[in-house]
TrEMBL record:
Keyword Mitochondrion applies: no
One GO BP: tricarboxylic acid cycle
Swiss-Prot/TrEMBL keywords: Transferase, Tricarboxylic acid cycle
GO CC annotation terms, alphabetical: cytoplasm
Family: Belongs to the citrate synthase family.
InterPro entries per record: Citrate_synth-like_lrg_a-sub (IPR016142), Citrate_synth-like_sm_a-sub (IPR016143), Citrate_synthase (IPR002020), Citrate_synthase_AS (IPR019810), Citrate_synthase_bac-typ (IPR024176), Citrate_synthase_sf (IPR036969), Citrate_synthase_typ-I (IPR010953)
Pathway(s) where this gene product acts: Carbohydrate metabolism; tricarboxylic acid cycle; isocitrate from oxaloacetate: step 1/2
Name of the protein described by the UniProt record: Citrate synthase
């Protein structure tokens, strides 16, 4: 009767929307992009194919994929003036703060792609955002390291280019490790979209007012940063380090079940999945592949994570509340094995999710019935009452 949860075919005016991009069955643990199962896409595609699929609705043929990759790779440089913007941050700024700031500032540099009523400008904005996010994420890392930025290389694929911009220095070009590059590419696919999660809903809500796409994606980055959402991958690593050894896992599982204890098992639970997050399974496999490649099969944090998963999945509390590992549970261990610092983990999530955000934004903007978002509330405040003067307030 409050109208709070009635379904609205338009958009977000009551907190829901229609979409044809990503399908999740939380009870069955199913995730599909445009109807294709996530495991098949992760196994058989590269990230550019999946980005094309999310943006345009169909898997590209070889010619379409190559043209799309050429377009994206030739937009990876960022306006040189933006270096000055990054230089304004403290060296110890969190890389997500830099990403949030720089992406929002893109609207001050690319005036020819902010008129959302122009289909061509919308397309250019989409390509610019997908292309420039790896460059901006790598900038954030290089800046924190006090190292010069590395320029993108058009001959590299998306994941290879990112690793190059992260780890190349003027003294030594990063030598692409194909196993790590393939793992990174798969991880980007797994993080690309996920229906109407908090950050995607933020992007849609911001976009529903007609705000430019760069500002909308910056809003998505801000929302993703939270530890309950994209910040969980960084929080999982911090949690595993806090646990310290496999024999202390039981102590922390006990704490996670104590309502009076604020401790939560990071990387566990999900608003939608009440079964195993299909991405977590693929991430666990990638984790073992990467650790084997870098000779870190005995990584202590992996042993703690596996012990934690074993105990939690056998525990009545977690079984009853249907809490399973989610996409963030193993991702941090993989990133760390690749030499990526903890503070960069959520930047990688943002880098991948930009494709989903901008696909969802495009779908919303192109919906002729789209209206400005206006989530409803259930008012629980004071009823009408007479004004009281300062003297009467005691
Ligand atoms: C992502 O929405 C998306 O799709 C997000 C995402 C994406 O791709 O965009 O999948 C990415 O954000 C994954 C989630 C990453 N966050 C974490 O790993 C942080 C730890 N997880 C929790 O904070 C929690 O599980 C949430 C925030 C993810 C969801 O919490 P909800 O909405 O409360 O729902 P739930 O089903 O997970 O919780 C049910 C119960 C609750 O107890 P009651 O209120 O019913 O008594 O389980 C409890 C929760 O308190 N619970 C946990 C827990 N997670 C939930 N108890 C202990 N440890 C946990 N991790």
């Amino acid at each position: 009767e409050t109208g709070m949860f009635t379904y609205d075919p338009g958009y977000m005016s009551t907190g829901s929307c229609s979409s044809s991009i990503t399908y999740i069955d939380g009870d069955a643990g199913i995730l599909r992009y445009r109807g294709y199962d996530i495991a098949e896409l992760a196994e058989n595609c590269d990230f550019m194919e999946v980005a094309y699929l999310l943006l345009r609705g169909e898997l590209p043929n070889a010619k379409e994929r190559d043209e799309f990759h050429w377009t994206i790779s030739h937009h990876t440089m960022v306006h040189e003036q933006l270096h000055k913007f990054v230089d304004g941050f403290r060296r110890d700024a969190h890389p997500m703060a830099i990403m949030c700031g720089v992406v929002g500032a893109l609207s001050a540099f690319y005036h020819d792609s902010i008129d959302i009523t122009d289909p061509y400008q919308r397309m250019v904005a989409q390509h610019r955002l997908v292309a420039k996010m790896p460059t901006i994420a790598a900038w954030a890392y290089k800046y924190s390291q006090g190292q010069p930025f590395a320029y993108p290389r058009n001959k590299l694929n998306y994941a290879e280019n990112f690793l190059h911009m992260m780890f190349s220095t003027p003294c030594e070009e990063y030598e692409v490790n194909p196993v790590l590059a393939k793992a990174m590419d798969r991880i980007l696919i797994l993080h690309a979209d996920h229906e109407q999660n908090a950050s995607t809903s933020t992007v849609r809500l911001a976009g529903s007012s007609g705000a430019n796409p760069f500002a909308c994606i910056a809003a998505g980055i801000a929302s993703l940063w939270g530890p309950a959402h994209g910040g969980a991958n960084e929080a999982v690593l911090n949690m595993l380090n806090q646990i310290g050894t496999p024999d202390r896992v039981g102590e922390f599982v006990k704490r996670a079940k104590d309502k009076d204890d604020s401790f939560r098992l990071m990387g566990f639970g999900h608003r939608v999945y009440k079964n195993y997050d299909p991405r977590a399974k693929l991430m666990a496999r990638t984790c073992h592949e990467v650790l084997a490649e870098v000779g870190a099969e005995d990584e202590p944090l992996l042993k703690i994570a596996m012990q934690l998963e074993k105990i939690a999945l056998e525990d009545d509390y977690f079984i009853e509340k249907k809490l399973y590992p989610n996409v963030d549970f193993y991702s941090g261990i993989v990133f760390r094995a690749m030499g990526i610092p903890t503070t960069m983990f959520t930047c990688l999530f943002a880098l991948a999710r930009t494709v989903g955000w901008i696909s969802q934004w495009k779908e919303m903007i192109e919906d002729p019935d789209q209206k400005i978002g206006r989530p409803r509330q259930l008012y629980q405040g004071a009823t009408a009452r007479p004004f009281i003067s300062m003297e009467q307030r005691g």
